[in-house]
Design goal:
It contains twelve helices and nine strands. It is of the alpha+beta class. The chain folds into two domains: 85 residues; 236 residues, BirA Bifunctional Protein, domain 2, CATH 3.30.930. Helix 1 packs parallel to helix 4 and helix 5 crosses helix 10. Bound molecules: 3,4-dihydroxyphenylalanine.
Length: 342
């Protein structure tokens, strides 16, 4: 058996091979070096070669193998480096990647809207600390220790100290009344904390806006008109309001404010639970005892206060049924609040 003719042909074919594409190179690899390729076959034929030719045969097949392997290597590096240089070259005619705009958090959008609404009727923003003392969060607000009203809010106390995390922004009322004489007209947006089990309806941290107006001759009618104005600006000009008697230690008289359901126009829907009304805040006339605690003469001055949860207003306005969404920072949720609302 003379193998030298095939051998020469293979060598020639390999040496003259000049692939023009990665596909051609791959076809070459399969033909010579693949599992079912020529070189495999040549090695398999080894056992049929007469003994005296085995040595020469083996050398020749090895030569073919080496030639094929080095050819493959040479072009593999050529092709990949050509690809790399293509990728790194900058195509100035390519369209730019679209730029994604950020959007404001829905709580921020609603907070800004509330501030805007009250700004128009002369209210200014006031802020206070989130870590509060007992006096400003409870006692000055007519809620002394052992008063059952303290059970209305589960408080986070800071261990080994007199301090706590404020349970409401009503604490800012006290700070403002202590620091300036009437007239006072403020709204106080801010974060509050309660020791609540987290659920779709409740969270251990959320936001409130408190409002306070103290002057001579402020009446319940002023409160009602102010809240009607707010409801119409926030929920639509056809909104109606109703006040239901309630209890808060720091107001006397106290009320709960409902707004006519703006989702179903009072026809009855899941948001208003078929009643046509949704509750949006607590309010009332500031208790004279609270004024006295802040050294304001209740015979001369009177005022009203109100407090609402920003999450609650946002949930109603955007029809969000799980308060936890506000705190998860899921970009798919946050992207839905358009810049037009901001
Ligand atoms: N501070 C109350 C709360 O957190 C809300 C509130 C009710 C504020 C009545 C007020 C008010 O100013 O008059 O639930």
């Amino acid at each position: 058996m003379d193998v030298s003719i095939d051998h020469k042909q293979y060598l020639e074919e390999i040496n003259s091979f000049e692939p023009k594409s990665a596909e051609e190179l791959e076809a070459f690899r399969l033909k010579f070096l693949g599992n079912k390729g020529i070189i495999k076959q040549l090695f398999a034929d080894f056992k049929t070669v007469p003994n005296d030719q085995k040595k020469d045969y083996g050398q020749l097949v090895n030569e073919i193998k080496n030639a094929a392997e080095s050819k493959l290597k040479e072009f593999q590096t050529k092709i990949t480096s050509a690809k790399d240089s293509k990728q790194s070259s900058i195509d100035l005619t390519a369209p730019a990647y679209p730029i994604r705009f950020g959007s404001r958090h829905p709580i921020q959008i609603i907070k800004n809207k509330i501030i805007d609404i009250f700004h128009k009727i002369g209210y200014v923003v006031a802020e206070g600390p989130e870590i509060e003392d007992d006096w400003h969060n409870f006692t000055a607000l007519n809620t002394p220790e052992d008063h059952p009203a303290r059970d209305m809010q589960d408080t986070f106390y800071i261990s080994d100290s007199e301090m706590l995390l404020r349970t409401h922004t009503s604490s800012v009322q006290i700070r403002e009344m202590e620091s300036q004489p009437p007239p006072i007209r403020i709204i106080t947006p801010g974060r509050v904390y309660r020791n609540e089990t987290i659920s779709a309806r409740a969270h251990c941290t959320f936001h409130q806006v408190e409002g306070l107006y103290i002057d001579e001759d402020v009446s319940f009618a002023d409160l009602k008109q102010t809240l009607l104005y707010f409801a119409r600006e926030m929920f639509g000009l056809n909104s109606q309001i109703r006040l239901r008697p309630s209890f808060f230690p720091f107001t006397e008289i106290s009320a709960e404010l409902d707004v006519s359901c703006f989702i179903c126009d009072q026809k009855g829907c899941p948001v208003c639970k078929g009643t046509g009304w949704v509750e949006i805040m607590g309010c009332g006339m500031v208790d004279p005892a609270v004024l006295e605690n802040c050294n304001i003469n209740p015979d001369k001055y009177s005022g009203f206060a109100f407090g609402m949860g920003i999450e609650r207003i946002a949930m109603l306005k955007y029809q969000i049924d799980d308060i936890r969404m506000f705190f998860e920072n899921d970009i798919r949720f946050l992207q839905q609040f358009s810049t037009a609302d901001q």
